[in-house]
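Q: what does this look like with NDP bound?
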Amino acid sequence: MDLSGKVSFITGGARGIGFEIASLFAKHGSDIVIGDVNGENLRKAVDQLKGFGIDAEGYILDVSNYESCEEVVKKAIDKYGHVDILVNNAGITRDNLIMRMKIEDFDKVISINLKGVFNCTKALIRYMMKQRSGRIINISSVIGLMGNAGQANYAASKAGVIGLTKSTAKEVASRNINVNAIAPGYIQTEMTEVLPDDVKQKMLGGIPLSRPGTPTDVANAALFLASDYSSYITGQVIVVDGGMVM
Ligand code: NDP
């Protein structure tokens, strides 16, 4: 799958699944722009990405802030002249039962996981529409499909991402822009590392393929959605979960 000549913008790309997607796209020839909140992680990630022989830029980005998304998109367009692939990956958890969930933890998760996808899409979409091509890949979650006790905020945000994906896909299909979502299951990253062992064991028990996913499992699906092999696919949710939800 050849992505040479393309520029990919990956939010939350300094570590975890986002960094793995950036690395895989870079291995396939794409130049990379990553946006993330942590400057130190950004610098390390950009150095590693350049090791694949492509050009990479890292910009401080808070996806929950529209002006921040607009600024980073402008920097990327000023430098490269185009952005071909947007991966809305940045996301957080603030888990608790509804009874104990702080209002600000509900709002924060929605503003990063859901509004962040809207913000970056809105900031970039007019450029993609003008160039009459583009790919948008939104990282949702199986939790958005099935819900989870203790994750009402996260589940609502990730279900929202699916509705947003389908609406965006319908709005921009005539401009040759494909918009799809990936719903990962239990993937081993720093986000899931902090979960208690009994919760991890319970999740593993519900996975027919009997192993947690890796960031590469998710990145492989993202590469397919970024490539010409998926040119007739839009508005879909690809579930990457070892069979957890079927
Ligand atoms: P990580 O926590 O490992 O990485 C998330 C990255 O996003 C971090 O670099 C983080 O920065 C960054 N980030 C956080 N807030 C913002 C913000 N406001 N603006 C820009 N960047 C931000 O998460 P994962 O790699 O595990 O998850 C990536 C995506 O995949 C998320 O959307 C998540 O919900 C989703 N997902 C993950 C699953 C899993 O099992 N891991 C399962 C299903 C979905 P910092 O380093 O400062 O925290």
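The chain has a mean pLDDT of 97. The chain has one domain: 7-234.
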